[in-house]
Amino acid sequence: MAIRGRKPKPTALKVLEGNPGHRPLNKKEPLPKGRLPRCPDWLEDDAKKEWKRLGKVLAEMGMLTNLDMMTFAGYCQAYARWKGAEEFITQHGDMVRTPNGYLQQVPQVSIAQTNLKIMLKFCEQFGLTPSARSRMVGEENGAEKETDEMELLLRG
């Protein structure tokens, strides 16, 4: 079921703005620890590179566990296909002239658009957008657990 209403601003941004709406801030945004699952052998090369790049970050945030292997593999594969389509468009252009003389969009344009939409859906699931992170609730992020002064300032 879809979440209704406007996507919320990230809590850190609300704090920086002085919480103009004076609504309660989400003090339970997650700061969990996770574990990077093993990268599947069947992923494309660019997907494996994205797995290594982003997987490490997600695991450190606690947003990636062994249970998330299939979902994260889907994101990485969509990334590889999107990247390949975008590289094709950059090299060859987005239009081709048909034998009848008409201009037609190359299939890579819709491949890129479709995979970008898929990637963005996965990004929301893994908290890779600011609004997605602000909706998440983890354990209490109390000041006693935070040692970094900037984190204390951003969290309020």
Automatic annotation (TrEMBL):
Highest taxon in the source lineage: Bacteria
Composition bias type Acidic residues, residue spans: 146-156
Ranges of Basic and acidic residues composition bias in the record: 136-145
UniProt protein name: Phage terminase small subunit P27 family
Annotated segments matching region Disordered: 1-37, 135-156
InterPro entries in UniProt: Phage_term_ssu_P27
Organism of derivation: Megasphaera hominis
Pfam families for this protein: Terminase_4
NCBIfam families for this protein: sm_term_P27
Lineage of source species: Bacteria, Bacillati, Bacillota, Negativicutes, Veillonellales
